[in-house]
């Protein structure tokens, strides 16, 4: 891990705004408040490519309440609810 990413503040992807770019540090499904159980949510996120060390960028926010958000993970664009994005910790 680079020195720059070690000094950047970690935050849930669900609070990031359009234009944010960072690296996934870890998943914290228990803190997401999703309707899915923790294991299922974490499994789904991993299947979509939300893995530790992956580069992520917030591309778009929904008009009503900023939900859902469109994010690019590596070279794939994915839309997800902010409450699920709260499980993805980035820096």
Question: What is the end-to-end distance?
Answer: 11 Å
Provide the β-strand percentage band: 25-35%
Q: H/E order of the elements?
A: HEEHEEEHE
> How many independent structural domains?
1
Low-confidence stretches: none
Q: In order across it, which strands form the biggest sheet?
A: 1-6-2-3-4-5
Gross geometry = globular
Summarize the structure.
This protein is α+β, with helices and mostly antiparallel strands. It has helices spanning 3-7, 38-48, 82-85, and strands at 11-12, 21-27, 55-61, 69-73, 76-80, 88-90. It has one domain (3-90): Ferrous iron transport protein A (FeoA) (SH3 type barrels, Roll).
What does this structure look like?
The chain is of the alpha+beta class. The chain has a single domain (3-90), classed as Ferrous iron transport protein A (FeoA) (SH3 type barrels, Roll), CATH 2.30.30.90. Helices cover 22% and strands 32% of the residues. The chain is built from three helices and six strands. Strand 3 (55-61) and strand 4 form a beta hairpin. The longest helix is centred in the middle third of the chain and has 11 residues, at 38-48.
Record the SSE blueprint:
Blueprint: H1 3-7, E1 11-12, E2 21-27, H2 38-48, E3 55-61, E4 69-73, E5 76-80, H3 82-85, E6 88-90
Antiparallel strand pairs: 1-6, 2-3, 2-6, 3-4, 4-5
């Amino acid at each position: 891990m680079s020195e720059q990413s070690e000094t950047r503040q970690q935050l849930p992807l669900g609070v990031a705004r359009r234009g944010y770019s960072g690296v996934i540090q870890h998943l914290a499904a228990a803190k997401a408040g999703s309707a899915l159980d923790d294991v299922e949510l974490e499994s789904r996120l991993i299947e979509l490519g939300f893995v530790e060390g992956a580069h992520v960028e917030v591309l778009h926010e929904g008009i009503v309440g900023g939900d859902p958000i469109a994010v690019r993970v590596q070279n794939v664009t994915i839309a997800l609810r902010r409450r699920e994005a709260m499980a993805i910790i980035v820096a």
